[in-house]
# Entry
Amino acid sequence: MKSAARTVELLEVLAARGDRPARLQELADELGVPRSSMYALLQTLISRGWVRTDVTGSLYGIGIHALLAGTSYLDSDPRVRVVRPYLDEASEALGETIHMGRLDGRDVAYLATRESHEYLRTISRVGRRLPAHAGALGKALLAERADAELPAGPYEALTPHSHTTRESLLADLAKTRSRGYSIDREEGVLGLVGFGFALRYDAPAQDAISCSVPVARLTPGHEEQIVAVMREIRAKIEAAPPGGGAAAHWR
# Structure
């Protein structure tokens, strides 16, 4: 069990580093294991494709099998299969970037994205994680929970507009519950406004959809259109039969 936990921790560390490869000693220090043990673990994972190394054998990064496993997760998830066509519909109707995300601890993981043809932002890629308090998807999902479940602050400031205190976030979540959707005004990414809608096929909701639009293109009329279209898309998703037939009901 200890070996399995160490393997998972190593893969999580490498995945979190993104395009910053790690050295052997860095990984040994971060996970608190002997250098020799870390080297042996890395060599095992390299041989199986979960970790890759450079031509010198001194730098390590996440391997291609991590991608294959992640893709399998998306392909096997019945909720993602149901939602994807509706993301296409919203994207075509609005011409903006549409996301689906799932709450994972204190973060939201992006499971599907339809990029706007007007602008491209790699920050919205599938597999990206964003603190729940700092985005439309996360705030829509946090609003589905009791205030007592909200972690104590302070919270990380991703931009000057991010909520950093529990009191500030609670006030925002109260407004979200009142209007029925969340608004992220440059709290996660400068220059972008997001509108988030929890999908209530689970209780409490685990998934949400959102629409992101550059501040420069957001007029009052366009905002009304976004809210109307996204409300309609949410209703269609929630009314759709669950995908997967006899598929397992994951938790």
Observations:
- DSSP finds eight helices and nine strands in the chain.
- The two ends are 22 Å apart (CA to CA).
- Helices lie at 2-16, 24-31, 35-47, 64-76, 78-94, 136-142, 166-179, 220-239.
